[in-house]
Amino acid sequence: MSATAGEIDRVVGDAGRPVVYELSRVTKTYGRGAIHALDPVDLTLKRGSFSAIIGPSGCGKSTLLKIMAGLVPPTSGRVVLNGTPVMGPRRDIGMMFQQATLFPWRTTLENVVLPIEIRDGSAAAKASHASARALLELVGLSGFENVYPDKLSGGMAQRAAICRMLVTDPSMLLLDEPFSALDELSRDFMNMELQRICLEKNATTFLVTHSIPEAVILSDVVYVMSPRPGRFVEIIEIDLPRPRSLDMLTDPRLATYVRRIRSLLDEGAFQ
Ligand SMILES: Nc1ncnc2c1ncn2[C@@H]1O[C@H](COP(=O)(O)OP(=O)(O)OP(=O)(O)O)[C@@H](O)[C@H]1O
């Protein structure tokens, strides 16, 4: 089953909220058509929604995220963010990856304001120190402003990376397995922190993950992708109250969603 943007609107069921992102019939091939990465994909994201995409390795998840970020052009189709086509990297998009990639010779605060320094120069970066400090407080890193990355744990470094992503006040957050390098306890904790931050900022967030429970506990909607060429085989609305808590990992309702997604991902499910 492949879903259209209209069908997704009905699934999300929040017609009152403005649309932030719209992908229409987006496809991608690499190597002059030799590798067919994405079949037509339609996607509509509403302001403040949290969505996750899950699918087998190599199905095209990162390709889709890079297209959404303007880092890779689609072969066909339209990508529109805040009413204007995405033709390349944009200021209103924040990204986060598996590794925090903080510069070791810069303090936490200097790392956080780096996107502003690159974009607007060092005076603007200095002027943004107050808002960067507020972000560090938001993620629980007050007191670590002047510390260098080698003194931060993996979770703390990812918190700093969250601040660096938020410092330009993007309207869209694109996350590519941001906590998969952390141990399980830290990852669970950081996921709850991510939820708190997204709710507080009313952020529109799109997450690539390999973890079904992570997708379910964080998301309003989970997009399940087929093996390559990737297409959405099912769009699942997660009807669990917010804020979500780690206790919900043992909730039978969550287990039902997990089972459904696992059965879709099982080998041969799409034949
Ligand atoms: N720059 C590229 N050139 C050629 N082929 C590519 C390129 N980038 C990705 N691919 C291919 O496109 C397909 C989709 O890759 P992609 O990285 O998007 O998948 P993924 O679902 O994110 O994988 P994983 O879950 O393993 O990270 C794969 O077959 C991959 O080898």
Give a verbal description of the structure:
The chain is an alpha/beta fold. It has a domain of 160 residues: P-loop containing nucleotide triphosphate hydrolases (Rossmann fold), CATH 3.40.50.300. Helices cover 36% and strands 23% of the residues. The chain contains 10 helices and 10 strands. A 6-stranded mixed sheet has the order 6-7-8-3-9-10, sandwiched between helices. A 4-stranded antiparallel sheet has the order 2-1-4-5. The N and C termini lie close together (12 Å). The structure holds adenosine-5'-triphosphate (ATP). The site of adenosine-5'-triphosphate has 13 residues, from strand 2 and helix 2.
Jot down its keywords.
single chain, 271 residues, alpha/beta, Rossmann fold, six-stranded mixed sheet, four-stranded antiparallel sheet, 10 helices, 10 strands, 23% strand, disordered N terminus, binds adenosine-5'-triphosphate
Q: How many strands appear in the DSSP assignment?
A: 10
The main pleated sheet reads as: 6 strands, mixed
Tally of separate helices = 10
CATH topology of the domain at 1-92 and 204-271: Rossmann fold
Rg over CA atoms: 19 Å
Q: In terms of per-residue confidence, which ranges show pLDDT below 50 for 5 or more consecutive residues? A: 1-13
The first-level CATH class of the domain at 1-92 and 204-271 is given as Alpha Beta
Domain ABC transporter: 21-252
GO molecular function: ATP binding; ATP hydrolysis activity
Organism: Aurantimonas endophytica
Protein name: NitT/TauT family transport system ATP-binding protein
